Amino acid sequence: MIAKWWCAGLVLFSLHAQADETVSPRARQLHENAIVLDTHLDTPSNLHRPGWNILERHDQDGEFAQVDLPRMKQGGLDGGFWVIYTAQDKRDEAGNRQARDHGLVRLAAIREMIAAHPQDFELALTADDAARIEKAGKRVVFISMENASPLASDPSLLTAYHKLGLRMLGITHTSNNDFGDSSTDPAGHEWNGLSDKGRALVQEANRLGILLDASHASDQVFDQLVELSKAPIVLSHTSADAVYEHPRNIDDARIRKLAAKGGVIHVNAYSGYLIPVPKIPQRDAEMEALEKHYGEYSKLSPAQIQQWRRDQAEIDRKYPVPRANLDDYMRHLLHILKVAGPEHVGIGADWDGGGGVTGLEDVSALPKITERLLAAGYSERDIRNIWGGNLLRTMRAVQTTAEKK
Asked: Which DSSP category does 34 fall into?
């Protein structure tokens, strides 16, 4: 399977490509005072990499590492949802068992990071935890799952994941699974939304107080989640179909439906979902061959990562494709704000999973978004809600619903 960065044909960006954009003292102060949370950090994929340390700065890794503690501090990122991502493989007994084991290993990596650095990171289980952890000067670690395939062999594992910290559940990734349809499976829809197994999973997530995430899922899954869930749902990293029509993006009518039910859409910074990217078969073939040559990047040494980047840069030179910039990202964000209202929008940039645009290459650049939102006329209260308040309000609603059951 092609690595997540290349699902839409991403191009390597320079370490020095960030636009020179001044952040005013007002924006900087507002940003520092807000609880700044991102709902989709794929950073756990780095935690078991040989020689990789979350406490050290990793600019040299480019798109392979956009989040670490020094850059979180520089960009005022207080934390967010750290993702248990599992690529969709075969759905037979062996494939489901492999997915189960992978999910547990990724969960363990997150817990190990917290245990190893208790002075810097803390597990958050509730919205109130996040406020307390941020006030203590630590980084907030909520845990989410992208693609429910680790649960395919035994859905009752969701209870164990919940006890170990899981607080958000995404149904699918780029392919259909046992629980529902993906928005991008080349084979098309299999279940016309959620399967019976998926509907049962929704009910169990509601019971436990786990926030349901419709990013990557088909429109039919989204519609059914909105109707079936007893609590608000979210889109953890999704952009606007009205700005760039793509199966992974969402249309305005559904954005309004999400907002009407109290949910939040967190805007993605994945270049291939923000602007059109031409299909170049030779490029795709060489990128796929590169992926197969290096294998699972989370097992590679620093030297191997740098060689991978050089090889990728050569492919980019031969087959250049456009890359979105901060203006493109803001077009999506500002459109969604107008449609949903500032009470139902957040940020989920897909860091370490393909996110990042020119001018917003890593989390150190996050204050630029605050500057742009102020310039667009949004109030300080609106901006605080966009950065974390809306997410925490939704989490409280989800957990209150669970307690009433």
From this structure: S
The owner of tokens 């037979």 is 92
Residue 77: both structure tokens together: 């990122």
At 63, phi and psi to the nearest 5? -70, -10
What is the CA angle 258-236-2, rounded to 5? 130
Residues near 32 by Cβ (< 8 Å), separated by ≥ 6? 76
Please tell me the distance from the alpha carbon of residue 68 to that of residue 259, in angstroms, as a whole number: 32
CB atoms within 10 A of CB 135: 10
CB 127 within 8 A of CB 398: no
Task: Give residues with Cβ within 8 angstroms of 180, minimum separation 6.
Answer: 171, 172, 191, 193, 194, 195, 198, 217, 218, 221
Residue 121 is inside which H or E element, if any?
Answer: strand 121-123
Q: Please, what are the domains in the chain? A: 25-277+322-404 (3.20.20.140)
E-state strands within 223-344: 234-235, 264-267
* Ramachandran region, residue 260 (left: φ > 0; alpha: ψ -120 to 50; beta: rest): alpha
pTM of structure = 0.94
Q: Where are the beta strands (DSSP E) in 44-78?
A: none
d(CA 241, CA 234): 16
H/E stretch holding 100 reads: helix 93-116
Kindly compute the dihedral angle of the four CA atoms of residues 169, 170, 171, 175, in this order, to the nearest 10 degrees: -150
- Contact call for residues 169 and 150 (beta carbons, < 8 A): no
Mean pLDDT, the chain cut into blocks of 10 residues (405 residues total): 37 37 95 98 96 96 96 98 97 97 98 98 98 98 98 98 98 98 97 98 98 98 98 98 98 98 98 96 96 90 94 96 97 98 98 97 98 98 98 98 85
Q: How far is CA 2 from the centre of its chain?
A: 18
The Cα–Cα gap between 77 and 133 comes to 13
